[in-house]
Amino acid sequence: MNAFVETTNPARATIKSPLVMGYEVVIGFETHAQLSTQSKIFSRAPTAFGAEPNTQACPVDLALPGTLPVMNKGAVERAIQFGLAIGAHIAPKSIFARKNYFYPDLPKGYQISQFEIPVVQGGEIEFFLGEQKMSVRLERAHLEEDAGKSLHEDFIGQTGIDLNRAGTPLLEIVTMPDMRSSAEAVAYAKELHKIVTWIGICDGNMQEGSFRCDANVSVRKPGGPLGTRREVKNLNSFKFMQQAIDYEVRWQIEQIEDGIAIQQATVLFNPDTGETRAMRTKEDAADYRYFPDPDLPPLVIADEWVQRVRAEMTELPRVMAQRFVNDYALSEVDATALTQSREMAAYFEAAAKACGQPKLASNWIMGEVSRRLNADELSIAACPVSALTLAALIGRIADATISNNAAKQVFDAIWNGEGTEVDALIEAKGLKQMNDTGELEAIVDTVLAANPKNVEEYRAGNGKALNALVGQIMKGSKGKANPQQVNDLLKAKLG
Ligand code: ADP
Ligand code: MG
């Protein structure tokens, strides 16, 4: 387990690593996703967050003598779902192992985990970093139980122990050391977060610890052997993740430049200082004295079970994005952005189908809709402009009733609660484009007569003079002229 042999990821053969001060950054992630089961992984105690300390710990979680663990089928099913979602191998027979260590919040003196034979093996996660498609290989994902919590802050001179979290089901998802920058690591973590929440195996709440990422970071000279890694913990937001990795990379490079070798260690990110600080030197697997847990039989997963789970699974984000590319002629980047959550994807599809203008719908959702949602810190589920209302608005742009700018005014009005009837708002605000050529021509003639200098300049070859004229005409029409029509008319008249 420790002597990690690097093999290159063929899917990334042509992707160049960005360098930091001449060093290549190497990152591998270990993520603990809390599985969304009602009860614990080996007991019937509930898993709900935020209960009074020690009210959700049963004799099994307390490790009382004579108790025995019983596997939660729902946790296994979620592991299978994850494995299928990332194209991994589902082990037909995997083994639970005891990971032995002493800590006050671990009453058994060991954690039940999986070691040599995890339930999910291999697989791959693809995502975009800007326009660049990335691929990160997974090494494994294994089932394990969470430990309890030590409460250091609530008691002076004492430590409280809350065992509510003990036995909460976790899926630990481990990547190969495939990532090459903090930005890529964050993009990977976001994609993983999207997948587990999309398939519904984890609520993804980072503040509550439902999705905990540890980043293994090392640096090396390009082409050299892998450097010694330090594992950065406590990355409970995507923002901190990037900050922590950037700090850690700079720190390691400075050490190496000063001739100090990096020691393998576990470090904690402090969001207040923006620094990482060594917590302990890292244990090796051998320190844990892993051995198969005699209380639990091997986890056997029959092929029929895998097939049943596969048949019941929802369309995955990657598959849906590909469908958007095929059915709606969107670019892969746009389709990926629109499938960032199930709610977003459903909103897009409803709007696109209703207006028959998928490209416009995509532009609006990624532009105006996302901008306002971000500004107001709303999720798409709480969007004040419904998909059907947006579709109606897009319909009025497509049939040239209103300009894009006018549509933005209508959009703002709906957002601000002025109404939901697109046509009524267009009428009330007098935003209809002037499609009557006669009326427009009259304005054009007046403007041309009043601005002989601009006309002369344009005829002398100064293209910019045309803009000044268009501006005057738009003003004369109170913004209701169709800019394209104005342009056409002007060019025709000026020969
Ligand atoms: P452990 O025994 O501590 O679990 P592993 O070899 O399983 O160690 O690796 C744990 C994580 O560290 C994996 O995500 C792996 O990709 C990553 N990793 C391993 N070696 C390096 C390295 N030199 N630099 C960065 N990450 C690494
Ligand atoms: Mg490992």
Explain what the structure shows.
The chain is α+β, with helices and mostly antiparallel strands. The chain has 3 domains: 10-305, no CATH class; 315-428, no CATH class; 437-494, Arc Repressor Mutant, subunit A (Orthogonal Bundle), CATH 1.10.10. The chain has 16 helices and 18 strands. The protein has helices spanning 59-62, 73-85, 182-198, 238-257, 303-312, 317-328, 332-338, 342-355, 358-375, 387-398, 404-415, 422-428, 437-450, 452-459, 464-476, 483-494; strands at residues 19-20, 23-34, 89-90, 93-94, 96-100, 110-114, 120-121, 124-129, 132-145, 149-151, 160-162, 169-175, 211-220, 230-235, 265-270, 275-281, 291-292, 299-300. The strands form 4 sheets. Strands 1, 2, 3, 7, 8, 9, 12, 13, 14, 15 and 16 form an 11-stranded mixed beta sheet that branches. A 3-stranded antiparallel beta sheet has the order 6-5-17, with no helix packed on it. The site of adenosine-5'-diphosphate has 19 residues, from strand 2, strand 12 and strand 13.
